[in-house]
């Protein structure tokens, strides 16, 4: 493990500890986190699916008929995907985006019929 990997792990651990502390001590922060968590988890899963498919944002954009900045905005949560965008991303990544009453929008590997 190189120094940048160690630093990255430490930053992530520090961030997680900070968020946990804020959630424990600030009810408004906890409420906001709970409200936004489904969007955050979806974005995290979307990024993981793109990386697992071996695609850059630019390649994902080419496969979905959009631009790299649009993919970046989706991944940062600056924009919510439309149904059409979800369909094109699911096709490009060979994944499904199930929405159920038991869990928020998620990313799952596509199952062949």
Describe this structure in words.
The chain is mainly α. The chain has a single domain, classed as Orthogonal Bundle (434 Repressor (Amino-terminal Domain)). The protein contains five helices and two strands, in the order αααααββ. The protein has a two-stranded antiparallel sheet with strand order 1-2. α1 runs antiparallel to α2. The longest helix is centred in the middle third of the chain and has 26 residues.
State the gist of this model.
It contains 5 helices and 2 strands; from the N terminus they run H-H-H-H-H-E-E.
Shape: globular
The CATH class turns out to be Mainly Alpha
Q: Roughly what is the average pLDDT, rounded to an integer? A: 84
Residue windows where pLDDT falls under 50 for at least 5 positions: none
- List the secondary-structure elements in sequence, H or E: HHHHHEE
Strand-residue proportion: under 5%
Annotated CATH topology: 434 Repressor (Amino-terminal Domain)
Largest sheet data? 2 strands, antiparallel
* Alpha carbon gap, first and last residue: 41 Å
Per DSSP E runs of 2 or more residues, the count of β-strands stands at: 2
The CATH homologous superfamily: lambda repressor-like DNA-binding domains
Rg from Cα:
16 Å
Trace the largest sheet across and list its strands.
1-2
Number of domains: 1
Topology:
Layout (H helix, E strand, L loop, with lengths): L2 H23 L1 H26 L4 H8 L3 H9 L6 H11 L1 E2 L11 E2 L4
Antiparallel strand pairs: 1-2
């Amino acid at each position: 493990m190189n120094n940048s990997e160690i630093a990255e792990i430490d930053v992530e651990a520090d961030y997680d500890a900070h968020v946990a502390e804020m959630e424990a001590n600030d009810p408004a922060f906890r409420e906001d986190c709970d409200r936004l968590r489904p969007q955050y988890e979806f974005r995290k899963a979307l990024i993981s699916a793109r990386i697992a498919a071996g695609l850059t944002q630019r390649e994902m954009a080419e496969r979905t008929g959009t631009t790299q900045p649009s993919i970046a905005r989706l991944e940062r949560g600056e924009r919510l995907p439309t149904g059409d965008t979800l369909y094109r991303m699911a096709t490009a990544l060979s994944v499904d985006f199930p929405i159920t009453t038991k869990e928020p929008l998620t990313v799952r590997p596509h199952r062949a019929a």
